[in-house]
Specification:
The complex is a heterodimer of chains A (115) and B (111). With 115 residues, chain A is mostly beta strands. Chain A is built from no helices and 10 strands. In chain B, the strands form 2 sheets. In chain B, strands 2, 4, 5, 9, 10 and 11 form a 6-stranded mixed β-sheet that branches. A 5-stranded antiparallel β-sheet of chain B has the order 1-3-8-7-6, with no helix packed on it. The chains are: A mainly beta (115), B mainly beta (111).
Chain lengths: 115, 111
């Protein structure tokens, strides 16, 4: 079956512009996570969606970052007024919830470069 | 907050040697622990997932152990090959299944 997909695979933008990154989770997976991998920072949690519950936004680094998940499936991570320090690989993961379903499955990531 | 540490940061070994990668975590109340592989410029490939009730998992030449009481996990790779060269990441699951990652160990296997 299809895995987690993300688009675009690469995005180059100018400082100050807004960007949208998309994640398509595995069908039937109700939990969705966004992570960021920056040089020198490692992989860090950004935001977590679980079904219809309010998302856990505790990892978002600033109010320029937001995310939504429509219809319990596709998610979009939006970064407004991008800064050079936003340059990173943004990874999405999904998980089927329920007893015994523990593993997150990762997409290939979107490499964002802010000039 | 869960802190995950991986030692060493980098490792270079000749082909055929066994690899031992260490991971430690500060909060022993983890749910699961997962090891990933990442090749340069690529995404994450899951290697092994150890459930909280398990002490180890094995897949081919890979074996991972988990000792929650001491806050440690170890990934063993037997008879290393040049194709094993990559960065290996350890990640601990919290109760809501968020992952806390270590910084990784970059492995080079010399032919």
């Amino acid at each position: 079956g299809a895995g987690v997909s993300q688009s675009p695979s690469n995005k180059v933008t100018e400082k100050g512009k807004d960007v949208e990154l998309r994640c398509d989770p595995i069908s039937g997976h109700t939990a969705l996570y966004w992570y960021r991998q920056s040089l020198g920072q490692g992989l860090e949690f950004l935001i977590y969606f679980q079904g219809n519950s309010a998302p856990d936004k505790s990892g978002l680094p600033s109010d320029r970052f937001s995310a939504e998940r429509t219809g319990g499936s596709v998610s979009t991570l939006t970064i407004q007024r991008t800064q050079q320090e936003d340059s990173a690989v943004y990874l999405c993961a999904s998980r089927r919830t329920g007893t015994g379903h523990n593993e997150q499955f990762f997409g290939p990531g979107t490499r964002l470069t802010v000039l | 907050k869960q802190e995950v540490t991986q030692i060493p940061a980098a490792l270079s070994v000749p082909e055929g040697e066994n690899l031992v990668l260490n991971c430690s975590f500060t909060d022993s109340a983890i749910y699961n622990l997962q090891w990933f592989r990442q090749d340069p410029g690529k995404g994450l490939t899951s290697l092994l997932l150890i459930q909280s009730s398990q002490r180890e998992q094995t897949s081919g030449r890979l074996n991972a152990s988990l000792d929650k009481s001491s806050g440690r996990s170890t990934l063993y790779i037997a008879a290393s090959q040049p194709g094993d060269s990559a960065t290996y990441l350890c990640a601990a699951y919290s109760s809501d299944y968020k992952l806390s990652f270590g910084a990784g160990t970059t492995v080079t296997v010399r032919a």
